[in-house]
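Handout, page 2. Input:
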Amino acid sequence: VGVGAKQKRVAVVGQQLTRVAAFCCLDQVDRALAQLLELLPPLQEFLLPGGSPTAAWLHVARTVCRRAERKAVALAAVEPVPAGAITYLNRLSDALFTAARAANAGLASL
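Output:
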């Protein structure tokens, strides 16, 4: 699943947060994350964001995704939030972090 598809899904999350609709697609993010993790060595230390231009932009996207997750958690304290929306944002930010690692490793599968 490409970055464009993920952007569309994030827009869907935003729409669903405002309409309180049902939510899905978590399994696709989990599969993409698992595929990337198979290509990378395990993390041995804390990583600072940055690296290649692609990785840097992926880190920016991850930061925006984390911000959306925090806002969704705050919203959930006062309004109903669609099932899975917060989990989806959390996993998506994990996938973006892992994609940034893959970009810095020079993996062409992005």
